[in-house]
Write a structure and sequence with these properties.
Largest sheet: none
Number of strands: 0
Distance between the termini: 104 Å
Structural class: mainly alpha
Helix content: over 70%
Oligomer: single chain
Order of helices and strands: HHH
């Protein structure tokens, strides 16, 4: 007889039961998720600040009458 069904069943059971995370792994994963969200917000603020600075640099400098005197 072939061992194929027994091996397949064993691998399936390992795949289903062996994928849980330990408490330390769960905490590390949660921390990584939180840090990712913080980094995303920081990157968005940076992009907005850079775009605002580019808009300010693109505006022409207007001279006032006081500069002519």
């Amino acid at each position: 007889m072939s061992r194929y069904p027994a091996v397949l069943l064993s691998l399936l059971l390992l795949a289903l039961t062996g994928c849980s995370r330990s408490p330390k792994e769960q905490l590390a994963f949660q921390h990584a998720e939180e840090q990712y969200q913080i980094n995303q917000r920081a990157a968005e603020r940076f992009r907005q600040a850079r775009a605002a600075a580019a808009d300010e640099d693109a505006e022409p400098v207007r001279r006032s009458r006081e500069d002519d005197e």
